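SAMPLE LOG
Freezer: B-3
Tube label: C17
Construct: single chain, 60 aa
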Amino acid sequence: MTPPIINPAHEPKTMGAGAPPPRRMRSTELLQGARRVVIEHGDASYTLLLTRNDKLILVK
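STRUCTURE (predicted):
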């Protein structure tokens, strides 16, 4: 079996060898029963939506 070809442009940026792993949380923790949550980042607001097909969409 041939390993997949990875596009470096799609690889996450690392903070270095000693950096802690990214924090993980479940979508249910963010949404808390709602289908939409607004995330404020700097001066911008982003909306995280849970679709009818159980997918997540992040929009500005």
